[in-house]
């Protein structure tokens, strides 16, 4: 690599690792990645397919309409180098149109129509899962040289780490949100119990029974009923006197 390309590659790694340790948007990260790869390596278009939680692949980023189209084409056909790379977890490198035609006829036809003669597909993977694939299209035949292929693979590894970290962070955030909602609900319920206990001169257990009984009979969430009581939007009647009806 030339000094300029080396600097651009270092900058790409710095950008990717910066996203690992900070807040970022996954789509923006992937778009930055494909733009960097297209600018650094001897390729004409780059696209990324990413699997959703149900393992359905989608086009997540691309440098051109052509690369996005070829990604969608493979998804519709259920075959192609990008699909194979994702399904096997291995790099798939196709050096020319003849090899492409032999392996995926429809993809080869559309790829040739779009002006591409070779493709290099790299899985985005961790130790335990394949997340998608990054796909490098070239108008000229031939494989990526070993140095470029290694560097491109290293960038996809960083991207995979970033995506996994984001997914873990999202899960952790959801757990924190659920815990916080539960704690907030508990506070509101305790406030409602205290209000009912004071208003009707009952103990907290009786107040909670009144609160929960009203929520069940009304078919409303307990927190919602408690909040309405606290905000004075709902008046729950007190228990009937012990001698009522005699």
TrEMBL record:
InterPro entries assigned: ANTAR, CheY-like_superfamily, GAF, GAF-like_dom_sf, GAF_ANTAR, WH-like_DNA-bd_sf
Top-level taxon of origin: Bacteria
Residue ranges annotated for the ANTAR domain, each copy included: 169-230
Stored Pfam families: ANTAR, GAF_2
This protein's UniProt keywords: Kinase, Transcription, Transcription regulation, Transferase
Protein name (record): GAF and ANTAR domain-containing protein
């Amino acid at each position: 690599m030339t000094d300029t390309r080396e600097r651009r590659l270092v900058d790409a790694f710095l950008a990717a690792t910066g996203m690992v340790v900070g807040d970022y948007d996954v789509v923006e990260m992937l778009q930055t990645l494909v733009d960097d790869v297209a600018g650094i390596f001897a390729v004409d278009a780059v696209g990324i397919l990413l699997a959703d939680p149900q393992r359905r692949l989608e086009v997540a980023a691309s440098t051109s309409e052509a690369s996005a189209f070829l990604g969608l084409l493979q998804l519709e056909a259920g075959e192609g180098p990008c699909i194979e790379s994702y399904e096997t977890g291995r790099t798939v490198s196709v050096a020319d149109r003849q090899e492409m035609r032999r392996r995926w006829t429809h993809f080869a036809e559309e790829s040739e129509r779009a002006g591409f003669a070779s493709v290099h597909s790299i899985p985005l993977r961790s130790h335990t899962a394949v997340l998608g694939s990054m796909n490098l299209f070239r108008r000229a035949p031939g494989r990526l040289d070993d140095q470029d292929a290694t560097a491109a693979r290293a960038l996809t590894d960083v991207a995979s780490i970033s995506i996994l970290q984001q997914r873990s962070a999202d899960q952790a955030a959801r757990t924190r949100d659920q815990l916080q909602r539960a704690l907030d609900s508990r506070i509101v319920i305790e406030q409602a119990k205290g209000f009912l206990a004071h208003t009707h001169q009952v103990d907290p257990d009786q107040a909670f029974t009144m609160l929960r009984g009203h929520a069940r009979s009304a078919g409303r969430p307990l927190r919602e009923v408690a909040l309405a009581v606290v905000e004075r939007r709902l008046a729950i009647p007190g228990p009937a006197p012990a001698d009522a009806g005699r």
